[in-house]
Description:
There is one protein chain. The chain folds into three domains: 21-115, no CATH class; 119-145, no CATH class; 152-166 and 218-322, no CATH class. The mean pLDDT is 92. It has a four-stranded mixed β-sheet, with helices on one face. Strands 1-2-3 form a three-stranded mixed β-sheet, covered by helices on one side. It is α/β, with parallel strands linked by helices and 325 residues long. It has helices at 58-68, 96-115, 169-188, 193-214, 243-252, 309-322, and strands spanning 21-26, 32-39, 72-77, 121-123, 127-129, 132-137, 140-142, 152-162, 219-229, 232-237, 240-241, 257-261, 270-271.
Amino acid sequence: MRDGHDVLGEVPEHPIDSSVGVIRVDDLDGHPIATLFRYSAHPVTVGSRSAVASTDYPGPARDVIEQSLGGLALFLQGCGGNVNPRVGIGYEIDCRDTKNRVGLELGGEALRVAARIRTNTKAGERRPLGNVPNILFTPWERIDTTDTCTHLAAAETTVALDYVALPELARAQELAAAWRATLEQRLTEGAQEWEIRVAVKMERWARRLLAAVEAGGATFDLRLHAIRVNDIVIAGMNVETFFETGLAIRERSPLPDTLVLGYTNGSTAYLPRAEDHPAGGWQLDGSYALPDQLPQFYPHQITALHPDSEQRALEATVALIDRLV
């Protein structure tokens, strides 16, 4: 809070998910084909004053891996709904220096992990070498690669999540009429482009809300998927997920290497935990620090999701992974 308003700020003592998940895919001779790396933070080092198309920090992180290790590098966005880079959101018009520094830091860590992964050889039994009997050497022995994939499976499901209570019909009609009038006024009076865009988005949302109220209610489709290769599983959901949710899923997964992703097959809602909801709930006419905390921001959302939605998403994702075991 600042001057009575919600603002996006830093909470230095708050924990984050600092882990970097890495998957290395090689040919049969151990040469890299692709390296996938997961991290949970918004790519926002290039801020809104920098009017350029940018890969943000995942771009230079990919470059580090591709130029040093070879093959293709792919960034997987983890559960970063409540995590920003330590440097914050970019302020300068030219944010390349900060973007590159953050990317080098992440890419260097992913490279360090990838360089230690051996897919075609393993450490053999230590043994002496020739006439040096008092020093043991470790030979690298080739792994039998005739059957490198011992388990391959995938599953997906859709969970119908509930919204918070919808407004009365009269209130929904009032909102729809008000935003229709606002949009018409801004179009006829030559308002600024951003004001018109806001009115267009709000008017469309108000129509969705009214249609849901007239239909007697609505639910939100949470789409989950999981892909297993050997003892690695990648689980994804189509929402902006908090890092705590990702950690909880990983802790309960029966497989040792579990990568949990948000923003997968689209990003259609904001998924805070029950304890992250504001006191009194999300207000239809509230003013919040970020647009993605508002249901109006997303093209298919009606209002805020019910506070139990995150727990249901967590349980459903763990159950989906269990199906692959």
